[in-house]
Design brief:
- By secondary structure, the chain is of the alpha+beta class.
- Among the domains are: 44 residues, no CATH class; 61 residues, no CATH class.
- Helices cover 41% and strands 15% of the residues.
- Strands 2-1-3 form a three-stranded antiparallel sheet.
- Strand 4, helix 4 and strand 5 form a beta-alpha-beta unit.
- It starts with a strand and ends with a helix.
Length: 152
């Protein structure tokens, strides 16, 4: 895995992990690297600092982590229109689809093979299972939110 600091054309800065430098290049060339703040597909690598950590930095980071166990990474404030659109999408998916949780890969494959009737589902899938679904031609897309069933 490799981490890159990225920046979009609107100067939103964020970081993202990729399986390899080649994976980043492939996704970037295909226009599949998207700014999470504004949705821009014009994203490029930005200046990165080396990941050198001293013992003092490790100790400080450990203390900071303990001091704020539920802290989330901070990004620029989300665009209110984008947040509203995401909430609308989430509500639509949850109203019109069945939540299958960790059985998503199994259920999606069964529908694809015709073993069970097709229906709209959503849930979780491990990265290796997501890769297998794609390789097998099973139609599935990642959702840009965590299901409410997982946030309660």
């Amino acid at each position: 895995m490799i981490r890159y600091n990225l920046k979009c054309e609107n100067d939103h800065q964020f970081e993202s992990w990729f399986q390899s430098a080649d994976a980043y290049q492939s996704l970037s060339s295909a226009g599949k690297v998207e700014c999470p703040a504004c949705g821009s597909l014009k994203v490029e690598k930005s200046l990165m600092t080396p990941g050198v950590t001293t013992s003092r930095k490790k100790a400080t980071a450990a203390v900071e982590t303990l001091a704020s166990p539920g802290a989330q990474p901070v990004m620029s404030d989300p665009d209110p229109e984008m947040a509203a659109a995401m909430e609308k999408l989430r509500n639509h998916v949850e109203k019109n689809s069945d939540y299958v949780g960790p059985d998503f890969a199994k259920q999606a494959t069964a529908m694809h093979l015709g073993d069970v009737p097709s229906r709209s589902i959503y849930g979780e899938v491990a990265p290796e299972d997501a890769k297998r679904l794609a390789e097998d031609g099973v139609p599935a897309l990642p959702l840009p939110f965590i299901p409410k069933a997982k946030t309660n």
